[in-house]
Amino acid sequence: MLPPMRELAVELGVNPNTVAAAYRTLRERGVIETAGRRGSRVRPKPATTGREHIRMDVPVGVRDVSHGNPDPALLPSLARAFTWAAEQSDREPVLYGDNPVEPEFARFARAALDADGVPAGPVAVASGSLDAVERVLAAHLKPGDTVAVEDPGWGSLLDLVPALGLRVTPVRVDDEGPLPDDVRAALESGARALIVTDRAQNPTGAVVSATRARALRAVLRRHPEILLIEDDHGHGIVHQPLHPLAGTTRTWAFIRSVAKAYGPDLRLAVLTGDAVTLDRVRGRQRLGPGWVSRLTQRAVSRLWADGAVDAPAVAAAYGERRDALIAALAERGVPAHGSSGLNVWIPVPDETGAVSRLLHAGWAVAPGALFRLGAAPGIRITVSTLTPEETGPLAEAIASACEAGPVRGYA
Which helix (H) or strand (E) holds 281? Predict the structure, then answer.
């Protein structure tokens, strides 16, 4: 605990207003926090990988449906694209000071964004969605600022925000995305930023519908000063149309990773947004890694040019696996959610018990604690490699593990 301001002023021999100003600055920067009548204290150092400790080792012989990975069989071959990119790089090496964004990559990326109604803006490249989110947050916020995030939501993001010294306020979601009333309350209470997953929300599979998008835009128009970040990592593996919120606020960023459709190891995401945000992100990037490998950008451009991923077919394959599991669970009286993407979210009355019983039955699932702040307990199933023969036995095991009774909703 820190000493009272007047007491510290006497000890240091300075005006109490000077100490009050210093405490205020430290509080604004997230170094200290006020604990009511108990005074002020130094904030504990935020954990950077807190949720990693919740993960479990999958024993030999247990079927792992917890991983969150795409189906390798649905990923394109990279050999031809990288061979072509390497040959081009031999002819035209990328050197220090060159454009950090491959022109052909920017052309393809911007055309796809335009087709989906994402407002015009410059294009940058980041090393995946989380890298892009971190750079955008750092471009506008300072320690102690509050960020509104989906609950349940992406576990890595829930760890990242406090690791940056920022505060988290949860926003509940349903199958159509963030609840407008929760977003309104978060912004009215002082949140400086809002992060929304447009499609294939992790872990629930939620998709921002046209109706929900209109409601969210109406809320955002009353708060044009906040930073809006949209994550469309599901691009290329979903069939639902995009309903972007971008452009409703003065500062915004829209992010598209290629991980789910083309391969996680590519470590590449498209980033666009307002001119100020992109200028800050690119400026800071120049002082760090400099740029994301243009060899990789060229390879991805080639994949796009060749139509290496049949997006409708991939979306249909994942949709069939999700729908089959959800239907099998419904037959056994277990409600589940999964409108898009790779995962199915199942509310459970006893999360720890359900995970343990399923592991004993030969199934490793992701505990909901990886994705929750205040949301009700649940488990996440990744269906990307689930076969038709496995669907029934898995649903039966889940029903047995949840025999204490179903839970409605996940908000």
Answer: helix 275-286
Note the pLDDT of residue 43.
Answer: 65
CA distance 5 to 148: 32
Q: 287-299 pLDDT, tens per residue? A: 999 999 999 999 9
Residue 49 predicted with pLDDT over 60: no
As a whole number of angstroms, the distance between CA 17 and CA 6 comes to 9
Query: What is the domain range of residue 83?
Result: 79-306
Q: Is the peptide bond before 349 cis (omega within 30 degrees of 0)?
A: no
H helix intervals, 151-251: 155-163, 180-188, 210-221
Residue 337 DSSP label: B
Smallest CA-to-CA distance from 375 within 211, 201, 192, 259 is with 201
Residue 50 has what pLDDT? 61
* Confidence check: pLDDT of 406 > 60: no
Kindly report the length of the chain.
411
* Same domain membership, residue 239 and residue 154: yes
- Tell me: do 228 and 290 sit in the same domain: yes
Q: Are 201 and 173 in contact (CB under 8 A)?
A: yes
pLDDT at 45 (0 to 100): 56
DSSP bridge pairs for 149: 170
| 40 close to 2: Cβ distance less than 8 angstroms | yes
- Coil/strand/helix, residue 279: helix
What CA–CA distances, in Å, run from 219 to 116, 196, 255?
Answer: 22, 14, 21
Is 121 inside a domain boundary?
Answer: yes
- State the chain's maximal CA–CA distance in angstroms: 77
SS3 category, 190: coil
Beta carbons within 10 angstroms of residue 64's beta carbon: 14
Rounded (to 5) percent helix, strand, coil in the chain: 45, 15, 40
- In a shared domain, residues 348 and 383: yes
More confident of the two residues 396 and 408: 396
CB–CB of 157/149 below 8 Å?
Answer: yes
How much is the average pLDDT of 100-122?
A: 97
Q: Could you check whether the bond before residue 203 is cis, i.e. omega within 30 degrees of 0?
A: yes
CATH, residue 181: 3.40.640.10
